[in-house]
Amino acid sequence: MDVVTVREVFVASPVEQFTIKPLVPLEVGGLDLSYSNSSLWMTITVIAVTAFLTLSMRGGRLVPGRWQSMAELSYEFVANMVRENVGSEGRKYFPFVFTLFLFVLFGNLLGMIPYSYTFTSQIIVTFAMAAVIFVGVTILGLALHGFHFFTLFFPSGTPIALAPILIPIEIISYFVRPVSLSVRLFANMMAGHTMMKVFAGFALAMGVLGVAPIILLVALTGFEIMVAVLQAYVFTLLTCMYLNDAIHLH
Amino acid sequence: MRAILGACRGIVGQTAAVIVALGGASDVLAAGDGGGAKLPQLDIATFPTQIFWLVVSFLVLYILVSRIALPRISEVLEERQDRIADDLDKAETLKKEAEQVRGEYEKALAEARNQAHAAMREAQDEAAKNATETEAEAREKVANMLKDAEERIEATRSEAMSNVRNVARDVAGDAVAKLIRIQVLGEEIDRVVDATMEGRN
Fold it and tell me: Cα distance from A124 to chain B (closest Cα, Å)?
């Protein structure tokens, strides 16, 4: 492998994969709303989730097959998560939480397919979701508890002397929620994909010795699939906990 | 606790920020002399399209999941739950029935045993009664025979006695006539013999 190719491999930056490429240009009121590679994979996610949930349940058998089991397990998994973290009042929000979980999970997992696009590696996507959750949960809390909602920042039973320290901490930790929620998902996805690209670059650059990075890459792929599932779970779990805070305060 | 959680969350956020920074650094490193390479995620120009299509996709998915997929899954799960509950109910009923049958069987068995006991006791009682009756009869019969025999002995004895009296009277009359040659009147001899025998008795 000559030096020029190696240079080229490195010139193709490991973060280039995150570039938004417009597929169908679309401009509304001066805003660029082009249908891009990111949009395409969102659409594929929607189709995949819908197909997964409907095709697997088509038979609706009493004794489920493999696909039906997976659909039912995902349903029960999220249902349990909502029940354990929010309680019976969480039933109303179950469709939203379930959709959120599958959207993020499939977005992450489909992103593991070579040449696909991981829309959850975009900070604006994860931040938009986190912001909607944060604003929605805050409105819900205010609607349910009114002024009482602000006891969230100062739990009853805390010594009054702690108020000057505790209240700012609680307020900051509350307003950091959308940031930490979105950055956690985005950073995990981006870091994983970047790392894989870097190792792929090594594999190409090292010639015969590239076997080592390839072996590492295989392990990394498994690890990234785990991260994809785990981050979808964490994102959903935290949403449930925020919902619980809004509904039950402390 | 909440404070600690908050702090943890802050640390996680910071770590993430570091990762972002690292990503940027590696970008710059990798881009090398390319220069001016930026993280595509930070290109604000792409934000509207991403948000727009995110909202569209998510809403479509939400509607599809909540209107079509979830009702179907919950229907199947409920059906299964109902079926299981049904089967459990049926099993419960069958178990109760079996228990009832067993109870009836045991009752019948106890009844039969009681009947057998009663029959045995009755037979024993009857046998005992028969034995007593037979014994009493035999005793009466023996008593009667004894009485008859006693009566017969008495009759024989009194007959023998009267025979003795007649003999004694004849002998006495004859002896008186022979000794003193006096014919004693029959009644007189009777009286004397009687008195003598009375004395003897």
Answer: 6
Total domains in the fold of chain A: 1
Interface test with A, best of B18, B51, B57 (most A CBs within 10 A): B57
Residue B194 contacts residue B165 (beta carbons within 8 Å)? yes
Query: Residue B22: is its pLDDT beyond 50?
Result: no
pLDDT at A220: 93
With 0-12 / 13-18 / 19 or more C-beta atoms within 10 angstroms meaning exposed / middle / buried, residue B12 is: middle
* Contact assignment for B26 to A62 by CB distance below 8 Å: no
Closest residue in B to A245 (Cα) is B2
**Partner residue facing A50 (CB), from B32, B49, B69:** B69
- CB burial of B159-176 (b: ≥16 within 10 Å; e: otherwise) equals eeeeeeeeebbeebbeeb
Rounded to whole angstroms, the Cα distance separating B35 from B27 reads 10
List pLDDT tens digits, range A23-36: 888 888 888 899 99
In this structure, of A190-194, A216-220, B35-39, B106-110, the range with the lowest mean pLDDT score is B35-39
In the numeric block, which tokens belong to residue B144?
């009667």
Structure tokens at A50: 């819908």
Nearest to A190, CA basis, from A248, A138, A124, A144 = A124
Per the structure, the complete domain to which residue A108 belongs is given by: 3-248
Output the CA torsion sign for B64, A225, B16, A249. positive
ipTM score over 0.85, yes or no:
yes
pLDDT at B200: 63
Cα A99 from Cα A241, distance rounded (Å): 16
Band of pLDDT at residue A7, cut at 50, 70 and 90: very low
Helix, strand, or coil (residue B194): helix
Q: Tokens representing A103?
A: 């959207």
Identify the sign of the CA torsion A95, A97, A101, A104: positive
Question: Which pLDDT band holds residue B25 (cuts at 50, 70, 90)?
Answer: very low
Q: What is the DSSP string of B171-184?
A: HHHHHHHHHH----
